[in-house]
Input
Amino acid sequence: MINREFPATRLRRNRYDDATRRLVAEHRLSVDDLIWPIFLREGDGPAEPVASMPGVARTGLAGLARHVEQAARLRIPAIALFPATPAAQKDSEGTQALNEDNLMCRAARLLKAEYPQIALVGDVALDPYTDHGHDGVLRDGYVANDESVAILVRQAVNQAQAGIDIIAPSDMMDGRIGAIRAGLDAAGLIHTRIMSYAAKYASAFYGPFRDAIGSGGALRGDKKTYQMNPANSDEALHEVAMDLAEGADMVMVKPGMPYLDIIARVKARFEVPVFAYQVSGEYAMIMAAAQNGWIDGERAMLESLLGFKRAGCSGVLSYFAVQAAAFLEANP
Ligand code: PBG
Output
């Protein structure tokens, strides 16, 4: 029990001035904590703004190196790639995921050549490539687990061979981490890391992302038979335990802000690197309120990111990554 009594103790004393507040600060956000998700488009056209994510655009390969230049200069350690696939390239099996010249692979090769110091995170799931918008293949209307896993393994190997450093399976199929680890190892890719989307919830906060990659309109039904029920917390620990046993190097909780309790439980229980994904809807909410003058966008951004650190995260995937890194550089 912590036994401290007023007036001998006045907790406000440690908040008295900026110097003292800095000295007693328990957590701190740094550029090393940031992973920047970016959206890719086909073709030579200009970057296309994502309407529901002000400040975010889908970038073509011609402009990609320039798009990433500031992030590289700021020393953002990792970038996560998300391709928007033209409808003509989608099919029911998501075969474009296995094409070694698909948008993600071409982007990975380009970025590896240009910025070898930046770790590339590859999302492994079929939803950017399926005409039904699900993360796996459908059999009798149900996302078939084992058949989907077999495809996801090939997708992961394809990405790693193109230069993706960190494979991030976001599909929530059972057993995929073990299968992907074995597939990578069999291909000699023993250094490729796996950041598992271990506790990924069936969430309303992915809406703007589905606009960004164009999977939302196509999505038939919902993802509740594979993504987790927001009502559950114990179940997240089982997801994490299994993914770690199967070979995950790092685990992720997603979305972020409504699930800080999950992050804290996972960190306390497993003592492994935990990441949060501050998802598209969280970004959109902060931006929309800020643009209306209802909150201070910069402070809300920094407070939300610091909250992930306090909850126990090693890092955060955030669409604010570049903005936050620029702020941290200017305010060391
Ligand atoms: C899909 C995937 C999703 C996100 C990352 N990978 C959406 C979904 O599951 O439908 C969401 C990211 C965001 O909302 O920012 N495998």
Remarks:
- The first strand starts at residue 34 and ends at 40.
- DSSP finds eleven helices and twelve strands in the chain.
- The mean pLDDT is 97.
- The chain has one domain: 27-330.
